[in-house]
Write a structure and sequence with these properties.
Elements (H helix, E strand, L loop, with lengths): L1 E7 L12 E6 L2 E7 L14 H17 L6 H16 L13 E8 L3 E7 L4 E4 L5 E4 L12 H7 L20 E6 L5 E5 L1 H8 L5 H11 L1 H14 L11 E7 L2
Antiparallel strand pairs: 1-10, 2-3, 3-4, 4-5, 5-8, 6-7, 6-9, 9-10
Helix pairs in contact: 1-2, 4-6, 5-6
């Protein structure tokens, strides 16, 4: 499959703009990490920031993916989280539930099937040759009974709450995972929520999102999202967000 990707920082970030998303791609895999921006005043117990976390996760994931390790994706992610935890366990409070965290969405291509893993709110969208669309998503954070800072802190990486890549390797085994026959896929999109909001916030059908991607490319989708962001007036929404798109297309 041909792979195209775009990732950019939110346009309202103070310079120098730091993108807390990260895209990692190879000949037969693609990964989107979307670091969770810490609310003002939250003490993470960690001397490192979110971009450090997503970069370290990518560095842990890259070697086994590039060497085509047969290890299942949840195991690869659990090992990556454990590896990152070990690098700062001596300097940071890795038991703090507010430690930097990230979504993780991965796709790995095989000759006869495609694996996916989705942890937190960065969906993987598949389209079949006959136009059927399947969305693999993890919406547990959207289904929390309350979204206060204390509730999110209490329910992060806890049964009955939601899961993200941070300091707890067990989170990898709570991801949404599965496989699809390769013959049943001609398009795959991996989106951070800063890009999937084209559908999830602004109401465009997934069919339209994939049409934009396959016709005009990832750059155009992000531009359209930014146009909606600039015009948005709904109170309580974060107007802009980092946005990442990976498009895999073809046989």
């Amino acid at each position: 499959m041909e792979i195209r990707a775009v990732s950019e920082a939110a346009p309202d970030r103070r310079p120098p703009a730091v993108n807390e998303d990260l895209v990692l791609t190879g000949p037969d895999f693609a990964v989107v990490l979307d670091g969770a921006t810490a609310p003002a005043g939250v003490e993470s117990g960690c001397r490192h920031d979110v971009p450090w976390l997503v970069m370290r996760l990518a560095r842990e994931l890259a070697p086994p993916l590039l060497t085509r390790s047969p290890t299942p994706l949840p195991d690869l992610l659990a090992e990556a989280i454990a590896g990152v935890r070990a690098t700062h366990a001596d300097t940071c409070d890795v038991s703090n539930p507010d430690s930097p965290s990230s979504t993780v969405s991965m796709v790995r291509l095989h000759p006869d099937h495609v694996e996916h893993l989705v942890l937190a709110d960065s969906p993987v969208v598949l389209r079949s040759p006959d136009g059927k669309i399947t969305v693999h998503s993890d919406d547990r954070i959207e289904r929390l009974p309350e979204r206060t800072l204390e509730a999110v802190r209490r329910l992060r990486n806890q049964p009955g709450g939601f899961w993200a890549a941070s300091t707890e390797p067990q989170a990898a085994y709570e991801a949404v995972v599965g496989t699809t026959d390769r013959a049943d896929i001609d398009v795959i999109a991996i989106l951070s929520d800063g890009a999937s909001r084209f559908t999830e916030r602004y109401g465009h059908p997934w069919e339209e999102l994939l049409d934009v991607l396959t016709t005009d490319g990832p750059r155009r989708l992000i531009d359209l999202v930014r146009e909606h962001d600039a015009a948005a007036t709904t109170p309580g929404w974060k107007r802009y967000d980092d946005a990442s798109v990976v498009l895999l297309q073809g046989p």
